[in-house]
């Protein structure tokens, strides 16, 4: 006889497969909260669908949301069903997303072919949470053709996005120091395409030349891909069509060189690592005595970590 949980999972899965958008929203909430029912749904649905996953990152104020909004329009004009995951930094008080769904994208809320969801990074050391990858799996299973993952562009998220997305788009602006900061952060190495947004501001040509010079010194990318640079003005839509074609070109490059499967494996690896990291974070919050012993010099961090990972060893010698 099926348990109540199994019955709930089967009922929600049935509605999900029928294309009920409320079932998708419910499934995403369950997964993000770590509910066992969400994990059961993931096992049943994972691996279905093959969306083109585009990560959009860059410094705050670069116009990522406006640019993503324009890219949604381009995708819809080509008949693609589009999902958007907007990953916001978690509130330190509530754990919820601070920024909420990006206002600039809300004109799509009446379009059944577009679904936008904000996710909190939930303490993932400034980066993406494993829940982001789980949400991606659900959106793929729901049948979206293209999924944009937009990060706030601070901390670890800019590097994490390359492990999650098939194509990583780095958005820069002509603002002084934008390119220099990208070089220092190592983000140059993870970007598959560059958009110099707000190109109507002074300094656009200069930053493009800086990018080209840096790329000349960068190591070769898989399959010999050389990241193109696209000037854009997202506010008016200028250059967005060419940028979208660039995203397509990179996807075709991945297909042509058999690189997509490696991306999928790396995404799964990132998800498992994120779960382990979250477990560790929760355990250390409950292990005040062990942490205090590290602070007093009675235990090394490695010894404390081993005890947390193997609770049965806590009775043994330090």
TrEMBL record:
Tree of life domain: Bacteria
GO molecular function ontology, one term from the record: GTP binding
SUPFAM superfamilies reported for this sequence: P-loop containing nucleoside triphosphate hydrolases (SSF52540)
The keyword Nucleotide-binding is annotated on this UniProt entry: yes
The keyword Hydrolase belongs to this UniProt entry's keyword annotation: yes
UniProt keywords, alphabetically: Chaperone, GTP-binding, Hydrolase, Nucleotide-binding
Matching InterPro entries: GTPase/Isobutyryl-CoA_mutase, GTPase_ArgK, P-loop_NTPase
A Pfam cross-reference name: MeaB
CDD domains: MMAA-like (cd03114)
Family statement: Belongs to the SIMIBI class G3E GTPase family. ArgK/MeaB subfamily.
PANTHER family linked: LAO_AO TRANSPORT SYSTEM ATPASE (PTHR43087:SF1), LYSINE/ARGININE/ORNITHINE TRANSPORT SYSTEM KINASE (PTHR43087)
Record protein name field: Methylmalonyl Co-A mutase-associated GTPase MeaB
């Amino acid at each position: 006889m099926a348990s109540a949980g199994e019955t709930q999972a089967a009922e929600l899965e049935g509605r999900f497969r029928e294309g009920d958008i409320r079932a998708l929203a419910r499934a995403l909430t369950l997964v993000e909260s770590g509910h066992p029912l969400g994990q059961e749904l993931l096992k049943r649905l994972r691996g279905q669908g093959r969306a083109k996953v585009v990560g959009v990152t860059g410094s705050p104020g670069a116009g990522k949301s406006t640019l993503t909004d324009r890219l949604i329009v381009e995708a819809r004009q080509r008949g693609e069903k589009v999902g958007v995951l907007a990953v916001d930094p978690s509130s330190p008080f509530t754990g919820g997303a601070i920024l909420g769904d990006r206002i600039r994208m809300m004109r799509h809320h009446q379009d059944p072919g577009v679904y936008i969801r904000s996710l909190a990074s939930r303490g993932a050391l400034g980066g993406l949470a494993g829940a982001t990858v789980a949400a991606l799996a659900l959106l793929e299973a729901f049948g979206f053709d293209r999924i944009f993952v937009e990060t706030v562009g601070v901390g670890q998220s800019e590097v994490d996005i390359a492990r999650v997305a098939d194509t990583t788009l780095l958005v820069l602006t002509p603002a002084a120091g934008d390119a220099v900061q990208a070089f220092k952060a190592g983000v140059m190495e993870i970007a598959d395409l560059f958009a110099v947004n707000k190109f109507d501001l002074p300094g656009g040509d200069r930053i493009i030349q800086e990018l080209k010079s840096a790329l000349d010194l960068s190591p070769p990318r898989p399959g010999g891909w050389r990241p193109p640079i696209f000037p854009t003005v997202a506010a008016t839509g200028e250059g967005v069509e060419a940028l979208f074609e660039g995203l397509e070109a990179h996807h075709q490059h991945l297909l042509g060189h058999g690189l997509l499967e490696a991306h999928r494996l790396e995404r799964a690896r990132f998800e498992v690592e994120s779960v382990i990291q979250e477990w560790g974070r929760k355990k250390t919050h409950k292990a005040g005595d062990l942490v205090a012993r590290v602070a007093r010099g009675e235990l090394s961090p490695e010894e404390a970590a081993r005890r947390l990972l193997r609770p049965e060893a806590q009775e043994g010698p330090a």
